[in-house]
């Protein structure tokens, strides 16, 4: 295997994993809690811009350029996106469920406008460049550089995955599911639905912000056109394909859909003449859109689907009892010991 | 402040209002926020563009301007056909997607998500067929006539305003004075109960789609006539549409139109104050303010 191939593989996987982080964030909001976020691109953009402003070196015509360590930028990104998510959630979660969708759509539009127009802060349409990349000192050795970058993202995704799995199985995660499945029952047990939903929405938003920061530092350059509604759409397709409610599904869906996307983009540029490529790219979006609707219709669970039972205690029931109490349970239990 | 902002606001507002009526009807009767509604505006405009182009190439007589207006008979004829086609498109999307999801009795939010997917599919199809280059119904330039008080308007703009007012009155009468209008309001109150007393719920749903899509098509033709036609024209109107539907109160047709005018006028005045680059944010600010202060809207009932 040639060095280029490994290099490309590492690049592809790194990109896919940044999407996997967004997907994990969306899974907290939608998969676990049933909150519909149409403004993913906005939250990702907030993270990317906050981290870029915190970590880039001082620039003449732009506010910011604090030259802080990358880790500080990432934390700031997650915090900022989380706070915005909290505010929007606080505004809409107590209202009808689609008001949240409409409001998040508005966030994406507003963030896009701010990125374009607040030139002193965001660099306007030209965006922000020279965002410090992790292991920049190794840039002379492309292979080691890309593999190390991939390593960073693998670690981030793994840590997030383990933390979220822990969270899903915690009492907190069980309350979230209870609220999603039967709000009245959860309320009757004294759980404040609004508060739990708000927490989940803010955590999910924060994870999206972190993903935006990771993406920005990996590419080294951000501009408003990276955060169009298309991004929101891709991430939704990833989660739905992989299986919403399942963290492994979120990661699998991200890698798979990103793979299909990259492959179809390559096919478009190979098959169509240069003057027709913008048109053909529109077909790519049509394809993903039809696929999303088809999965919603035909296999709403996605590839992996949700593990219906997360409690360790239910796993200890005898198989017979479990079969009668949870009829649609066809997933392997994570604790199978009798 | 430039009084011309009033005219600009009224025109944008009447387009937003026509679109918002469709949003508010789908929301109150089918019970989901339809993110694909903006695409009916774009598809309506492109349907009219294609048909009026075909009519024009058939006979030059269709292109000769009518009276003071910038367009010939090809455009009114094309609009009538385009309204029918856009209604058909809405029924097709319903048959392929929303109807099946309704039959599966899925969560509301699945419908919202599906509408989001349908929106991107429809928009990208337009981009594929017509490319993203802006198009126009007519290249003729119109001179604005002074109306007094510093206001000026072109004949096209006045005609559009008049048509918008007529349509709103017609829809309001349809909902309040006819049998199908009563059925629609019954279904919006309680779908099961309406079905039990013998109302044909499926017919009501078809009416809602055709009515909403038809009004969206007219809004699209107006936007195409007064501004330009782009695949993203409907998408750019989506947030103002939602803001107007919620501000007017979900389910209220006069509310949607009035709120559309409010959003349009606010945009026009705000553009004068803070600059045109922030236009798209105005609807968001209005939306946040409504959700914060009066979530049921002007004419809505609290839940």
TrEMBL record, chain A:
It is found in: Cell membrane. Signal peptide: none annotated. It is a multi-pass membrane protein. GO terms for cellular component: plasma membrane. The keyword Cell membrane applies. The keyword Transmembrane helix applies. GO terms for molecular function: branched-chain amino acid transmembrane transporter activity. The chain crosses the membrane at residues 6-28, 35-56, 68-92, 99-118, 143-164, 200-221, 227-243, 250-272, 278-298. InterPro entries: ABC_transp_permease (IPR001851), LivM-like (IPR043428). Keywords: Cell membrane, Membrane, Transmembrane, Transmembrane helix. This is Branched-chain amino acid ABC transporter permease.
From TrEMBL, chain B:
The keyword Transmembrane helix applies. Its main location: membrane. It comes from Mesorhizobium zhangyense. One of its GO terms (molecular function) is L-leucine transmembrane transporter activity. Belongs to the binding-protein-dependent transport system permease family. LivHM subfamily. InterPro entries: ABC_transp_permease, BCAA_transport_permease. Keywords: Amino-acid transport, Cell inner membrane, Cell membrane, Membrane, Transmembrane, Transmembrane helix, Transport. It comes from the Bacteria. The chain crosses the membrane at residues 6-28, 40-63, 75-99, 106-126, 158-175, 208-229, 241-264, 276-293. It is found in: Cell membrane. PANTHER family: BRANCHED-CHAIN AMINO ACID TRANSPORT SYSTEM PERMEASE PROTEIN LIVH, HIGH-AFFINITY BRANCHED-CHAIN AMINO ACID TRANSPORT SYSTEM PERMEASE PROTEIN LIVH. One of its GO terms (cellular component) is plasma membrane. This is Branched-chain amino acid ABC transporter permease. The keyword rRNA-binding does not apply. It is a multi-pass membrane protein. GO terms for biological process: D-alanine transmembrane transport; L-alanine transport; L-isoleucine import across plasma membrane.
């Amino acid at each position: 295997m040639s060095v280029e191939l490994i290099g490309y593989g590492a690049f592809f996987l790194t990109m896919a994993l940044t999407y996997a982080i967004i997907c994990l964030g969306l899974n907290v909001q939608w998969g676990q809690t049933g909150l519909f976020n149409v403004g993913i691109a906005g939250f990702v953009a907030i993270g990317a811009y906050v981290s870029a402003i915190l970590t880039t070196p001082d620039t003449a015509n732009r506010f910011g350029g604090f030259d802080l360590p990358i880790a500080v930028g990432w934390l700031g990104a997650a915090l900022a996106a989380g706070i915005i998510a909290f505010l929007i959630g606080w505004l809409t979660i107590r209202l009808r469920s689609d008001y949240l969708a409409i409001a998040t759509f508005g966030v994406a539009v507003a963030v896009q406008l701010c990125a374009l127009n607040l030139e002193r802060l965001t660099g306007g349409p030209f965006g922000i460049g020279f965002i410090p990349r992790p292991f920049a000192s190794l840039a002379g050795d492309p292979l080691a550089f890309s593999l190390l970058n991939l390593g960073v993202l693998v670690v981030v995704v793994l840590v997030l995955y383990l933390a979220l799995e822990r969270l899903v199985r915690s009492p907190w995660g069980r309350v979230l599911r209870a609220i999603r499945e039967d709000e009245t029952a959860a309320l009757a047990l004294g759980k404040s639905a609004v508060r739990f939903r708000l927490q989940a929405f803010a955590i999910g938003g924060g994870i999206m912000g972190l993903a935006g920061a990771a993406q920005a530092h990996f590419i080294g350059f951000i501009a408003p056109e990276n955060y169009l509604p298309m991004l929101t759409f891709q991430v939704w397709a990833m989660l739905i394909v992989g299986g919403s409610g399942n963290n492994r599904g979120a990661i699998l869906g991200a890698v798979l859909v990103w793979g299909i996307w990259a492959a179809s983009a390559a096919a478009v540029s190979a098959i169509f003449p240069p003057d027709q490529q913008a048109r053909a790219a529109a077909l790519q979006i049509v394809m993903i859109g039809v696929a999303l609707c088809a999965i919603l219709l035909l296999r709403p669970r996605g590839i992996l689907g949700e593990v219906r039972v997360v409690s360790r205690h239910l796993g200890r029931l005898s198989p017979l009892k479990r079969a009668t109490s949870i009829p649609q349970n066809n997933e392997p239990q994570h604790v199978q010991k009798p | 402040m430039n009084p011309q902002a009033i005219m600009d606001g009224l025109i944008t507002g009447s387009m937003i209002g026509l679109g918002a009526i469709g949003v508010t009807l789908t929301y109150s009767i089918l019970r989901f926020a339809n993110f694909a509604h903006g695409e009916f505006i774009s598809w309506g405009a492109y349907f009219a563009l294609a048909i009026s182009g075909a009519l024009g190439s058939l006979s030059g007589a269709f292109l000769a301007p009518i009276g003071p207006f910038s367009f010939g008979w090809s455009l009114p004829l094309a609009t009538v056909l385009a309204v029918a086609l856009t209604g058909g498109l809405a029924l097709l999307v319903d048959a392929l997607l929303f109807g099946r999801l309704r039959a599966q009795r899925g969560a509301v939010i699945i419908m919202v998500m599906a509408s989001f997917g349908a929106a991107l599919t429809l928009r990208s199809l337009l981009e594929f067929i017509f490319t993203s280059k802006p198009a126009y119904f007519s290249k003729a330039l119109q001179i604005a006539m002074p109306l007094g008080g510093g206001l000026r308007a072109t004949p096209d703009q006045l005609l559009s305003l008049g048509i918008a007012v007529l349509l709103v009155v017609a829809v309001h009468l349809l909902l309040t004075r006819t049998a199908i209008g009563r059925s629609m309001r019954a279904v919006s109150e309680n779908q099961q109960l309406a079905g039990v007393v013998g109302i044909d719920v499926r017919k009501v749903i078809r009416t809602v789609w055709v009515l909403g899509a038809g009004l969206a098509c007219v809004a699209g033709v107006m936007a195409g006539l007064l501004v330009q036609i782009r695949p993203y024209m409907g998408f750019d109107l989506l947030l103002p549409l939602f803001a107007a539907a919620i501000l007017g109160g979900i389910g209220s047709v006069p509310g949607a139109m009035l709120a559309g005018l409010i959003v349009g006028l606010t945009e026009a005045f705000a553009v004068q104050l803070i600059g045109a680059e922030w236009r798209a944010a105005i609807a968001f600010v209005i939306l946040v303010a409504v959700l914060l202060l009066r979530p049921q809207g002007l004419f809505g009932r609290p839940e």
